[in-house]
Design goal:
The complex is a heterodimer. Chain A is built from no helices and 11 strands. By secondary structure, chain A is an all-beta fold. Chain B has strands spanning 4-7, 10-13, 19-25, 31-37, 43-51, 54-57, 64-66, 76-78, 87-94, 105-106, 110-114. Helices cover 0% and strands 49% of the residues of chain B.
């Protein structure tokens, strides 16, 4: 199975609600990154959290990292229809290339 | 405008043909990557390069080849040996940092279909 696995695979919420996505991984990491992909497009980097950090914020995004549980979560607050996309976590395990998870498909209903 | 470009956006290949996907960046990044994405799936690493004239196989390199003759360019050839090449191909670049991977910047992707 993959190094990073997101949960849930799909999530549907109403505009204004918060969306939480989780990522679990297997081996130790240097950092963990979250990316967003609109349908049929390239990925866009959202946030990077280092292994010695526990929480990071960027606008409406909040990322947590628990290295003891080998897990991370991405919280999008006050979601908007424009947040509809797939979200991927990617781990840096020191092999000079990231390992991507299978993604969470988020649908925000207007 | 700084960025990373891929061409073509759509590509159709007949059985037995080799095709080459283009990836160019003007971000002055040392590292470049090729990924494959199948419907509803995550990204799988095909090849990556951290310096001109050097590249490494990723997790699914069989049936693919690359070159890195210039810092700005990292073309991917899908050979006839790749048995199931229909997929969405993404190229990315990143600044090289000793010891860890930086954020990657992605191109818009090339959708390859085998006829």
């Amino acid at each position: 199975s993959q190094q990073g696995e997101e949960d849930p695979q799909a999530l549907s919420i109403q505009e204004g609600e918060n969306a939480t996505m989780n990522c679990s991984y297997k081996t130790s990491i240097n950092n963990l990154q979250w990316y967003r992909q609109n349908s049929g497009r390239g990925l866009v980097h959202l946030i990077l959290i280092r292994s010695n950090e526990r929480e990071k914020h960027s606008g409406r995004l909040r990322v947590t990292l628990d290295t003891s549980k080998k897990s991370s979560s991405l919280l999008i607050t006050a979601s908007r229809a424009a947040d509809t996309a797939s979200y991927f976590c990617a781990t840096d395990t020191g092999r000079r290339a990231l390992t991507f998870g299978s993604g969470t498909r988020l649908q925000v209903q207007p | 405008d700084g960025g990373i470009t891929q061409s073509p956006k759509y590509l159709f290949r007949k059985e037995g043909q080799n095709v080459t996907l283009s990836c160019e960046q003007n971000l002055n990044h040392d590292a470049m990557y090729w990924y494959r994405q199948d419907p509803g799936q995550g990204l799988r690493l095909i090849y990556y390069s951290q310096i001109v004239n050097d590249f490494q196989k990723g997790d699914i390199a069989e049936g693919y080849s690359v070159s890195r003759e210039k810092k700005e360019s990292f073309p991917l050839t899908v050979t006839s040996a790749q048995k199931n090449p229909t997929a969405f191909y993404l190229c990315a670049s990143a600044p090289l940092q000793f010891g860890y991977s930086n954020e990657q910047f992605f191109g818009p992707g090339t959708r390859l279909t085998v006829l």
